[in-house]
Amino acid sequence: MKVTIVGTGYVGLVTGACLAELGNDVFCLDSDADKVALLQAGGMPIYEPGLQEIVQRNVEEGRLLFSSDVKASVAFGDVQFIAVGTPPRDDGSADLSCVFDAARAIGRHMDRFRVVVQKSTVPVGTAEQVARLVRAELQAHGKDLDFSVVSNPEFLKEGAAVQDFMAPDRIVVGADDDLPGRRALALLRQLYAPVNRNQERLRVMDVRSAELTKYAANAMLATRISFMNELANLADCLGADIELVRQGIGSDPRIGYSFLQAGAGYGGSCFPKDVDALCRTAQSSGTRLAVLEAVQSANLRQKQVLLDKVLAHFGGDLRGRTIAVLGLAFKPDTDDMREAPSRALVAGLLRAGARVVAHDPVAREQAQRALEHDLAGEPQLLAQLGYVERPTSALEGADAVVIVTEWRHYRTLSASLLKRSMRTPLVFDGRNLLDPHQLASQGVACVGIGRSNLSLLREADAPTPPARQLALPKKKVRAESAPQAALGGPGVLPVATG
Ligand SMILES: NC(=O)c1ccc[n+]([C@@H]2O[C@H](COP(=O)([O-])OP(=O)(O)OC[C@H]3O[C@@H](n4cnc5c(N)ncnc54)[C@H](O)[C@@H]3O)[C@@H](O)[C@H]2O)c1
Ligand SMILES: O=c1ccn([C@@H]2O[C@H](COP(=O)(O)OP(=O)(O)O[C@H]3O[C@H](CO)[C@@H](O)[C@H](O)[C@H]3O)[C@@H](O)[C@H]2O)c(=O)[nH]1
């Protein structure tokens, strides 16, 4: 089949390359001339495991091409996927201007039946707006042509995008129940047949339900994460271990283990933006999604938790301290820095006076750009930020190391390495990647999310503190240099003064 993909970003490039790999002829359009030139020259604008090989193979075999020629792109594909960005506006609603530009261009240039597939994440009702725009352009150019706008939201995860495309959990298609809609659905069934395992993966529904399904999925996943993050913070106060709690609840099949990992908050280009957009949609429909509003504010608070733990340990003053930061991308196996929790953390460490030495296996360039943007007015802070090629180099002489992204490279950090390299062997583990008990037994304090106090309690074989102690008012935390201060001191709460 001949397919056009409008927008060659994470979603468009993966979709285009994978559809070419399945034997289709694919035209990838992008309005960013630099990106197109890079792809035409054999370069890759993003890091995504396995993608480069697929792109290269399909370009070489003549099934995949990149261009900025809008007219040619509309002439090419019987199916036109819209996979452009839908970033948040200042008020949290989705900015649909790129989607609408793409729709107008399709209407302006189309010369026969076209299926317009809405793959970008868009609010309910957008497909109808896209159809109106295409129709208006057809009328303005005196054309009487059939078309259908179909919703086919994308569920891929960055870092596993190729695998998600090739072996999807589900393929959601929302189509109208009219002649063009049925024709469109037949084409999509054909297009997805090779990955529609046992004919079971396709979920056909009306267009509005498909649009809402995408937001519902991300909102549910974000809710699980914020729920666990809040419980983790409570576990920190109570002397419980969120990792054990996670195993305890995950074994219930009604709950399951996925997306229950407490951490430094969710980031990326989707969860923060999509939860906000859904809340905005609800507001403009005259209702409220109170749970999701709370999910989002919990996540904003969570992005501060790691920084607060570091500041609490050092008494709020990081002048003269060197902090190693491991992992900058919003998650492993990507170089995407959009809404990455590392951004607020690094800025906070620098503002508190620290020198920061950062490492990320692939996101260094993107991180540099993002942090230069975030700290644009504070060049003196940027001067205190350095990047290194190896995690071990970041540790050298550091007063503490903060793990923000759970890259596999950091799983093997050993107590002996930490003790040998660092000024103080102290770990703030924002992804609960390391075993704090094992590290503590070897003289390295490791403060996790929702588990930091337990290692101290275990080490000292201390009983669970009485409830009275838990009710201690949280006051200004005293600076302590001993690693165990970071574990919360002898009680469960951090050592308090005054
Ligand atoms: N990134 C993900 O993991 C992911 C997963 C599922 C869904 N989504 C959704 O898919 C959409 C795309 O996300 P992304 O991360 O791929 O975005 P992106 O920013 O990486 O890529 C979008 C691309 O579209 C291009 N573009 C914009 N307007 C254009 C136009 N009129 N014509 C041609 N090209 C145009 C941009 O230059 C850019 O290259 C968003 O709605 C997003 O929410 C993203
Ligand atoms: O248990 C967990 C799982 C994830 N995260 C964080 O959540 C964010 C998002 O992670 P993930 O969902 O793996 O990455 P994305 O690539 O953003 O994918 C999400 O967003 C995409 C865009 O809409 C959807 O297509 C995917 O289905 C959806 O998982 C990251 O910051 C993770 O660190 C946690 O904190 N705890």
UniProtKB/TrEMBL annotation:
Domain of life of the organism encoding this protein: Bacteria
Q: Where does NAD(+) bind?
A: D30, K35, T86, T121, E158, K273, R338
Any GO molecular function: UDP-glucose 6-dehydrogenase activity
Reaction(s) this enzyme catalyzes, per UniProt: UDP-alpha-D-glucose + 2 NAD(+) + H2O = UDP-alpha-D-glucuronate + 2 NADH + 3 H(+)
Read off the SMART domains from this record.
UDPG_MGDP_dh_C
Q: Which UniProt keywords apply?
A: NAD, Oxidoreductase
| Region (Disordered) location | 479-498
- Name its pathway: Nucleotide-sugar biosynthesis; UDP-alpha-D-glucuronate biosynthesis; UDP-alpha-D-glucuronate from UDP-alpha-D-glucose: step 1/1
Annotated binding of substrate, by residue: F155, L156, K157, E158, K214, F259, L260, Q261, A262, G263, G267, K331
Top-level enzyme category: oxidoreductase
Q: Where is the active site?
A: C270 (nucleophile)
Cite the InterPro entries for this sequence.
6-PGluconate_DH-like_C_sf, NAD(P)-bd_dom_sf, UDP-Glc/GDP-Man, UDP-Glc/GDP-Man_DH_C, UDP-Glc/GDP-Man_DH_C_sf, UDP-Glc/GDP-Man_DH_dimer, UDP-Glc/GDP-Man_DH_N, UDPglc_DH_bac
Give residue ranges for domain UDP-glucose/GDP-mannose dehydrogenase C-terminal: 324-436
**Looking at the keywords, is Oxidoreductase present?**
yes
Q: In the Enzyme Commission scheme, what number(s) does this protein have?
A: 1.1.1.22
* Pfam family name, one: UDPG_MGDP_dh_N
- One GO term (biological process): UDP-glucuronate biosynthetic process
Family assignment? Belongs to the UDP-glucose/GDP-mannose dehydrogenase family.
The protein here is known as UDP-glucose 6-dehydrogenase
